[in-house]
Design brief:
The chain is α/β, with parallel strands linked by helices. The chain folds into 3 domains: about 25-120, no CATH class; about 155-260, Rossmann fold (3-Layer(aba) Sandwich); about 265-380, 3-Layer(aba) Sandwich (Rossmann fold), CATH 3.40.50. The protein contains 21 helices and 8 strands. The strands form 2 sheets. It has a 4-stranded parallel β-sheet. Strands 6-5-7-8 form a 4-stranded parallel β-sheet. Helix 14 (about 230-240) links the parallel strand 3 (about 225-230) and strand 4. Bound molecules: iron/sulfur cluster (2 copies). One iron/sulfur cluster binds next to helix 3 and helix 5.
Length: about 375
């Protein structure tokens, strides 16, 4: 069922002229009123799909709840003290709200102007400033950026910080799969930061600096196009940098998108195994590639692919940007454990296509395999 179907059925009893005038009014009103006001007045139609509201069961962190708090602070009805601003940061930036919003709002993005103001005025939570300092000092929240191997080729592969730090053995596998697909691969010794943390948390000056460095490095790379391991990095390069006045005239693909585009060239052996798919929320809600992982895996003969209860448009985000992990470790762990239990009900082995998701699920005790690693195991080359 599409998100506008209820509107259409509500209008079904009306005559053509009434229908037309109501639709016109709906569309013009959509433009007049500020988005944050519309969201504040909404009866939380997307609440059921918000992972943080589901896990916490607290109205103040629900999508419309956060919009109401933001509006009250903006209008001066609520003081911008730490207690009042805190719920705004209980947002994973996943965009699961957008999947069911008639206005197409992603609440995380509606909150950015206020978060930028709070950050600018020193009123964001302490965790935001702590992470901002690390990003300013290292371009990373984990210390010096990891060093890897530099290669020369036509396609630039951005492996990402999590893969390089936590799964260095995957680097060769990502290079290998691109070579199997016929590309020569370029990699950088030190990659620039490619994360959404400063964007979703209003760290405007940090985002401007890091995203300019990112775009400069990619422009200077002279690569034909760019392939990334994290879907959130693809979203950043395709949609977020323009909000900072930056442009990258190169195609950017998540690794799964490239594999999907070349799927007819690949042949797989039988895999008599059972796996459950954890779809990274950035792939579903940000890149809007809902079916590609399923379609890729469907090409492997005899693979028993299971889906968790929450999948596709109802995919369950396990942390998004690192703010929740820093701010409230207990809630962060509850979120991941809830997802892990749901996945384990279907199969022991979890497959995903984001090194960050893999790390979180593994740290909670899950047995996880990366898509590229899994495909190479069953690929006929
Ligand atoms: S994001 Fe959309 S559906 Fe969700 S509360 Fe706001 S207006 Fe309502
Ligand atoms: S972006 Fe995600 S966590 Fe934030 S309000 Fe929307 S659904 Fe909830």
């Amino acid at each position: 069922m599409g998100k506008y179907d209820w509107v259409l059925s509500a209008l079904s009893g009306l005559g053509f002229r009434d229908k037309l005038s109501l639709i016109k009014k709906f569309l013009s009103d959509r433009k007049k009123v500020e988005d944050i006001v519309k969201c504040s007045l909404c009866p939380n139609m997307c609440r059921f799909n918000c992972p943080i509201a589901t896990v916490l069961g607290d109205e103040s962190v629900s999508p419309a709840g956060k919009a109401r708090i933001a509006l009250a602070i903006q209008r001066g009805y609520l003081e911008a003290d730490e207690e009042n601003v805190l719920p705004l940061y209980y947002c994973l930036g996943c965009g699961a709200c957008k999947a069911y919003c008639v206005f197409g709002f992603n609440v995380a993005e509606l909150l950015i102007p206020l978060k930028e103001e709070l950050y600018e005025n020193g009123k964001a939570p302490r965790a935001v400033f702590k992470l901002a300092e690390k990003l300013k000092n290292y371009g990373s929240i984990y210390g010096e950026r990891p060093v890897g191997m530099a290669r020369e080729g036509k396609v630039l592969l951005l492996l990402g910080e999590t893969l390089r730090r936590k799964y260095p053995e995957l680097e060769e596998k990502y290079v290998r799969i691109l070579e199997v697909l016929g590309f020569s691969v370029k990699t950088l010794e030190i990659e620039p930061y490619c994360g959404l943390l400063p964007y979703y948390n209003g760290m405007r000056n940090v985002a401007e600096k890091l995203y300019s460095e990112l775009v400069d490095t990619l422009r200077n790379s002279k690569a034909d196009f760019i392939v990334v391991s994290e879907p959130s990095c693809a979203y950043l390069l395709r949609h977020v940098i323009e909000k900072y006045g930056l442009k990258l005239k190169k195609k950017v693909l998540h690794i799964s998108e490239l594999i999907y585009d070349r799927l007819d060239e690949l042949r797989f052996k039988e895999a008599n195994v059972e796996v459950v798919l954890h779809e990274p929320c950035a792939l579903i809600f940000k890149l809007e590639r809902e079916n590609i992982l399923r379609e890729i895996l469907a090409r492997i003969p005899n693979l028993k692919l299971k889906l968790p209860f929450r999948n596709g448009k109802n995919a369950f985000c396990i942390g998004g940007t690192e703010i929740l992990e820093e701010m409230d470790r207990e809630v962060y762990e509850r979120l991941i454990n809830e997802r892990l239990q749901e996945l384990k009900e279907e199969a022991e082995l979890i497959i995903t296509s984001s090194p960050s998701c893999m790390k979180k699920l593994e740290e909670a005790g899950g047995k996880v395999v990366d898509l590229v690693d899994f495909l190479l195991n069953y690929m006929e080359v």
